[in-house]
Amino acid sequence: MALTVNSVPTKPFEGQKTGTSGLRKKTEVFTQENYLANWVQSLFSSLGDEVKGQTIALGGDGRYFNKDAAQIICKIAAGNGLKKVVVAKDGILATPAASALIRRRKLFGGLIMSASHNPGGPKEDWGIKFNYNSGEPAPERITDKIFSFTEKIDSISQADIPDVDLSKIGVNTFGDFEVEVVDSVEDYLATLKEVFDFPALKALVSRSDFPIVFDAMNAVTGAYANPILVNELGASPDSVMNGTPKEDFGGGHPDPNLTYAHELVELMWKDDAPVLGAASDGDGDRNMILGKQFFVNPSDSLAIIAANAQATIPYFKGGLKGVARSMPTGAAIDRVAKDLGVECFETPTGWKFFCSAMDNGKCNICGEESFGTGSDHVREKDGIWAVLAWLSILAHKNKDVPEGGKLVTVKDIAEAHWQKYGRNFFSRYDYEGVDSAKADDVVNGLREIIKDPSKTDFGKFELDTADDFEYTDPFTGDVAKKQGIRFLFKDGSRFVFRLSGTGSSGATIRMYVEQYSDDPATYSVETKDALADIINVALKVSDLTAKTGRKEPTVIT
Question: Any residues with CB less than 8 A from the CB of 150 and at least 6 apart, and which?
Fold first, then answer.
């Protein structure tokens, strides 16, 4: 039976420019009539005949409007000649799980409904992005085409089919078109089992003297934490906190850092804290790792995982192909790469740059200081992967420790790493919701300074170079310009400023500061104290306080 396809008249909306992270706006923007439909139609129009007869994945982080959006997307997919949409049950699908689903089932791609770590609800944020056939975020050649079509769209091809019950697993058939509702965990778990030694992890996690806690922040990983950590690995059911995905994330901000995951932080700073604490974000691609009264900086976490991967994770038993970090990320992993004799790629912020290296077999561990870590098992950063990587390291270090014996802790592992490689003190200051004009004033002022930095006082620090980071992808030849303003000093210290594009309104100024030490006497110094001088210079040079009126950052990492 042929489907009835209606041509729904529409007109363009301004501002539907799509980036690597998709399109993000306030929810009330997306819920305007045809706003989402325009973008989805523009996506399918940009793909043209390539998408006809194909199967795509669909899911998201469970935020408000996702279920309604899923119905709209299915109707437009049918109207544009797709063969099938594979939808996660209840529309719940973590971003790394979507990548795994695309790769395992060899799908054409997938749509992910998420605004990542940003708040959800009727007055908060919503977003959508397209991942291509290797599970990676859409390349610019596709996102540029999407934007082009959004500027001239005049109709939407929408099939006349009923809504699908997303709570029931199974196949729904409408003529030649199908919507299959699938379990959101199955394909992802199968992928993780190809990476990690689950019996070894279970032997550790199920020990009575190895309590852990995972904060799902009422976001998407709540759907994964119990099946994986509790059912598969034997953790106590009370190991999972805030484990029910909610449309507004329980009123919280699902960003796993020391500010927004304060409930977990308070728990881990108690005298009877668990051995390991972890959290993930709205869509499950970020992570925070804590030991008892100990925070693992994401830049250190990346380096420690890379340094221990071959010995502790079966997927890497043949060694690393290479590693990568975003430019703002601390350089701790550079020292690990040098020690292992592998290349370390320094890229702009954005997972697509890592995907390029991974697709060419040159990188299999990578990460960003913004709590994103992952490997080439998928083409997205992966919060639960990072937690299992840390559990793998802990399992290996404690394999000969009898139950009740003195455990090797998260802090022990970090300190041993510093003893071998030195310590890269690193911190990030986030100034969120800054007036866009004021944020531009800060950045433009810094761009003026780097034209002739000799006129600027850097205090006790001797400048080596200052630039606006530019990157040429060695595999695709693509050039990314103006990726962050860097001031690099001769002692290895540096500070970096860049604007973040992950919010839905206003601007976020990120300031990164770093200083290396190979003096063991300094390793226990508080990060804020070790970096005090370079922080003061960065704030003075940028004139950020005067230009924005912000005396304190919103978040310090």
Answer: 12, 13, 16, 18, 38, 39, 42
